[in-house]
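Re: that backbone. Tokens:
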């Protein structure tokens, strides 16, 4: 709604009551414009079509891939979007990612936990709501500044400037962007998945990422011991997410089906198979089995038939069954095709390294069956990017027959290689990774799962080293505050960032000349006005 339309509507509304004394239509219009999304469902209804449009744009041109950073607190998400708008002028094709790893490590009432779905499931929708609360506040703060500029232009009689500012309000781009939210393995059965999905959507999530691990055996995708579930059980959870979207009226909600099969060597159960070659039989065909033809059957043996032969799958004392080594990629391809065949919109293949050829090899096979297949890819901090890409360059140069004298593949992480031709080539490949992987390997969305976990630790380490050392207060002033001022970091005026200006506006609306405001002449934040 435009500023003028909102003002006219508020005038008509206030005119209906003779007892709403002291209220102004402009205040009502401004408050409404500052609160564009009253509920999480309003956010999900707004952001789901954005993702759908971006997916269509990527299909037309893979240069239009999308990106996000994982955020573990609303303030982090808010500052990220403020920075994006400041540096690039638009939030287009930039999303948020909610990482289950960071919820477990940073937001659980139990304290820091490993990424094993032990944290409270309610903490996930609570974080979705928190992220959007901070993004909506960023809208209110930015619009509030425009409103104050409109008042100043009016007071100065500058009509041209006033019209310019009203246009800025009418064309204001919200900080609210789509979020891809990690629902882990659903925290239970399909019903538990549905209940949690509904809460996450009500909080604003338009895209849910669900993985094919066993809920009560869930592991981080970059740790050992992962256990997958048969396809039918996973499809029931995808279906549960879709029902949650449809029940809440988010008909275009997005489901990201993640497979951990590349690194998962175990399954909790043997899949049910009604006929040879069905999806259950295909899942079971990857089991590591011993031919039992002519051999005695022991007490407690679990047996199945494969190709007319009686087979005993290898079972651990944990009652888990092993897959044959080397079958991970085949299982990933089958997982992805079956997920797309049964309601998933996007795929996620968790890999052990960022290697375009490996990812593209699997995607080529998937796209041979489902040409529209697109990936969400984890540019994970669990990868040693420097070492991985230096080793890739080393291996490529070795295959080309280049002279590698003086290069030691086992020592490539050393600073010695930073300024070398190999180091520069590896960095160039890292810089181009997202663009090239999107063009070659079908990656629609690139995310870093837990970057802000690392940046918080790194910046705190730097400040602690200086402040508690000989630099003292200069450690903060030179490395933090002076840089904030010169780089135009919004939160240098931390009182305004926390909402003091918005509060002062409201005091004006509510109490008029009797308002006791925080932003007076003696507010120390005025030192940062320039």
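Recovered sequence:
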């Amino acid at each position: 709604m435009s500023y003028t339309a909102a003002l006219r509507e508020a005038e008509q509304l206030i005119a209906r009551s003779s007892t709403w004394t002291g209220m102004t239509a402009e205040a009502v219009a401004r408050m409404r414009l500052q609160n564009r999304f009253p509920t999480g469902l309003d956010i999900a209804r707004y952001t789901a079509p954005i993702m759908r449009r971006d997916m269509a744009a990527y299909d037309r041109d893979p240069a239009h891939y999308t990106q996000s950073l994982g955020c573990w607190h609303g303030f982090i998400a808010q500052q990220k979007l403020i920075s994006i708008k400041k540096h690039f002028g638009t939030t287009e094709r930039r999303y948020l990612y909610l990482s289950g790893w960071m919820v477990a490590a940073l937001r659980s009432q139990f304290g820091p936990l490993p990424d094993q779905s032990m944290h409270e499931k309610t903490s996930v929708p609570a974080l979705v709501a928190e992220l959007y609360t901070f993004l909506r506040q960023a809208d209110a703060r930015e619009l509030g500044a425009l409103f104050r500029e409109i008042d100043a232009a009016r007071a100065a009689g500058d009509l041209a400037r006033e019209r310019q500012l009203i246009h800025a309000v009418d064309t204001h781009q919200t900080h609210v962007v789509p979020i891809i939210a990690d629902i882990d393995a659903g925290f239970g059965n399909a019903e538990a998945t549905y209940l949690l999905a509904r809460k996450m959507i009500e909080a604003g999530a338009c895209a849910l990422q669900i993985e094919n691990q066993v809920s009560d055996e869930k592991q981080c995708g970059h740790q050992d011991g992962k256990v997958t579930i048969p396809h039918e059980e996973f499809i029931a959870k995808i279906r549960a997410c879709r029902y949650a979207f449809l029940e809440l009226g988010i008909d275009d909600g997005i489901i990201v089906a993640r497979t951990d099969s590349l690194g998962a060597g175990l399954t909790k159960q043997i899949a049910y198979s009604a006929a040879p070659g069905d999806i259950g039989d295909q899942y079971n065909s990857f089991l590591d089995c011993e031919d039992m033809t002519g051999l005695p059957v022991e007490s407690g043996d679990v047996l199945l038939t494969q190709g007319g032969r009686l087979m005993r799958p290898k079972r651990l004392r944990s009652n888990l069954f092993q897959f044959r080594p080397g079958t991970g990629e085949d299982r990933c391809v089958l997982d992805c095709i079956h997920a797309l065949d049964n309601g998933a919109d996007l795929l996620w293949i968790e890999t052990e390294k960022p290697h375009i050829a490996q990812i593209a090899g699997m995607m080529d096979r998937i796209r041979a069956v489902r040409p529209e297949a697109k990936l969400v890819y984890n540019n994970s901090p669990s990868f040693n990017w420097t070492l991985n890409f230096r080793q890739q360059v080393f291996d490529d140069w070795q295959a080309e027959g280049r002279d590698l004298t003086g290069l030691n593949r086992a020592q490539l992480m050393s600073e010695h290689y930073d300024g070398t031709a190999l180091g520069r080539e590896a960095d160039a490949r890292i810089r181009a990774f997202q663009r090239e992987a999107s063009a070659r390997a079908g990656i629609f969305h690139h995310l870093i799962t837990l970057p802000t976990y690392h940046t918080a630790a790194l910046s705190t380490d730097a400040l602690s080293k200086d402040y508690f050392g000989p630099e003292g207060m200069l450690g903060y002033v030179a490395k933090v505050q002076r840089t904030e001022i010169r780089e135009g970091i919004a939160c240098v005026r931390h009182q305004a960032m926390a909402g003091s200006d918005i509060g002062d506006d409201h005091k004006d609306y509510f109490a008029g000349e009797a308002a006791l405001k925080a932003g007076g002449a003696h507010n120390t934040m005025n030192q940062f006005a320039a």
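The chain has a mean pLDDT of 93. The chain has 18 helices and 14 strands.
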